[in-house]
């Protein structure tokens, strides 16, 4: 069978549905009652209803078919549940249920092995154990509070439920929306390679993010990873590369972490981007999601004062980009529109020298694009300016809107860098930080990637160009 039913079930049963707000059975019931678009059956023999929804005492009492079952009951109750699942012709089970091989205890390992053996006999596939499950906003499947209800094209494969939740929450703040995200935990049956195969073939997914702690079958994983990377960008975050991290993943998902040099070799062979932190994973997925395909690295930078411009130029060059000077034809045009500073303007462009000039970043980028010298355009928003507040707000908004118009017309890659620093709750209420938030939101709504530093922007953009270069060879 394919994994389509895992991500697109028509009916779901929740065994262990609970009225206790502190329990997993309550959280899953809440999400399903509020969001799931198919038939829903809550199983609890002790109460008549939960959250206004009728409950059933057992699986056998459920009147309709069940495509997908979520287990929120104790581990020792799983084996008796499996024959009931087979009788109802349940195809896939998600085991939120934990305390198996990840405990390191022999009884937990043996129970997981017995569940795996018995499920195979009964021809039932399962996700987990010890995992959060599936988020698919198109059908209303979710496992976290405040997940975006809108769908998108980012797919996520996460061995850690907590890491997947952070990825969704922080990704949503930066404009990402998701096709499907899965937390698969111990991966005793459906594993990372199976999920990679699914996302590689999934037409709703354009970019794949992976957080992985270990693999069950190395050769199978390498084949699946390489096949996926041939069709769409894949970004991998590996957990548990150090001594303490290795101990942590053993107690988290019972995974063998593997040596770092082996992982680097695997990613290199598969032509996949590897990252070191969750923040980098978000940066890289954002760049792949919002930037068009490009391979050129000739970069134009505008925005910020002289120091910020110089530092930004150094960072982009160190990351592997070029910063050509302005072509003579452009300088001749600037003589007409910015006669006082035409010979002063360089790449990167210090916008502080243009505040008394009619020239805006939109026009500068347009002139640069006309000469076909530049491949990538970077806008640095000034986070402070020695002009009155309302004027600064208007000027910053005009700059942002102009850059958005330029991107829409040119279709070239455009990146925005907007730092927010370590801002306290009280400071967030000040007009200055509110204004920066407004400008940031304009870029996000226009699907222009926003980064908090030039280092993060340059590193992410370079990986996009590198991926498409590799794929073209």
Count of discrete alpha- or pi-helical segments spanning 4 or more residues: 17
Strands in their spatial order, largest beta sheet: 3-4-2-1-5-6-7
Principal-axes geometry comes out as elongated
Give the strand content. Answer: 15-25%
Main sheet overview = 7 strands, mixed
CATH homologous superfamily heading of the largest domain: Succinyl-CoA synthetase domains
Q: From the alpha carbons, calculate the radius of gyration and give it in angstroms.
A: 26 Å
- What share of the residues lie within helices? 40-55%
Note the gap between the termini. 35 Å
Written overview of the protein:
The chain has 17 helices and 17 strands. It is an alpha/beta fold and 473 residues long. The chain has three domains: 4-127, Rossmann fold, CATH 3.40.50; 133-290, Succinyl-CoA synthetase domains (Rossmann fold, 3-Layer(aba) Sandwich); 299-472, 3-Layer(aba) Sandwich (Rossmann fold). It has a seven-stranded mixed beta sheet with strand order 3-4-2-1-5-6-7, with helices on both faces. Strands 8-10-9-11-12-13 form a six-stranded mixed beta sheet, sandwiched between helices. Helix 5 packs across helix 10, helix 7 (218-231) runs parallel beside helix 9 and helix 13 packs parallel to helix 14 (389-410). The relative contact order is 0.08. Residues 243-252 have low confidence and may be disordered.
